[in-house]
Amino acid sequence: MEKIKSNSMLAQDQENHLIDKLLVNDNKAFDRLVRNYSSKMYAVARSFLHNDDDAQECLQKTFVQVFIKIHTFRRDASLSTWLHRITVNCALMILRAQKKQRTISLEDFSQHYNEYGERTTFSDNSGNNLEQIFERQETKTVINEMIRTLPEKYCNVIQLRDIQELSTKDTAEILEISEASVKTQLHRGRLLLKAILEI
After folding, report:
1. Which residues contact 6 (CB under 8 A, 6 or more apart)?
2. Is residue 189 within 8 Å of residue 155, measured between CB atoms?
3. Helix, strand, coil % (nearest 5) of the chain?
4. Rounded average pLDDT over 45-52
């Protein structure tokens, strides 16, 4: 028990030292921050975003934000939690931008009918059979897409609690809401997701 406590204190001391160096724009400290936290924050970004390029973009934006905003960091939360919050916010900003840009034109798709007027396939203009494409999608991908269609507050809570398996406390800190709100939004979001899945 004493050993765990001393390891925890050591880690806190190292984190405080790193923050102190970051506050005076120490380049080595920033390099160390990137080395220590890149993998974890990339995983966070990837859980929200569709592909590696978007996740990498999110990661870059996260560390730029850290560099700009390190002086605003309050030490009442861990550095990891603060980084997590910034990463989530960057991912959400990218998703919002993509949502605005995404336009689906029904003209890009065409129905095909046989001589009796029955629909045979639903395909895009390049001839890809969309029904087969949809059938090949993994369940996880489909569910993630459905989660993204939920209202933002429910989507965020489900992503953090159910997909990333964060605690209620950490989720509340990242989203800057109360733990009670996390529980309420998670419950409502799960009910809404269940209703969508049952349609």
Report:
1. none
2. yes
3. 75, 5, 20
4. 86
CA atoms within 13 A on the CB side of 38: 9
Q: Are residues 86 and 165 in the same domain?
A: no
Q: Is 60 exceeded by the pLDDT of residue 12?
A: yes
State how many domains the chain has: 2
Residue 158 structural domain: 137-199
For residue 178, report the phi and psi dihedrals to the nearest 5 degrees.
-75, 160
**DSSP secondary-structure letter at 75?**
T
- Claim to verify: residue 96 and residue 143 sit in the same structural domain: no
In the block, residue with structure tokens 């880690």: 11
Task: Flag whether 164 is in a domain.
Answer: yes
Are residues 76 and 166 both part of a single domain? Answer: no
Any idea which of 40-49, 141-150, 155-164 has the lowest mean pLDDT?
141-150
Query: Any idea how long the chain is?
Result: 199
Residues 9 and 75 in one domain: yes
d(CA 71, CA 120): 61
Residue 159 banded pLDDT, cuts 50, 70, 90: confident
pLDDT digits over 91-134, tens only?
Answer: 888 887 776 665 443 344 444 444 544 444 444 444 454 445 44
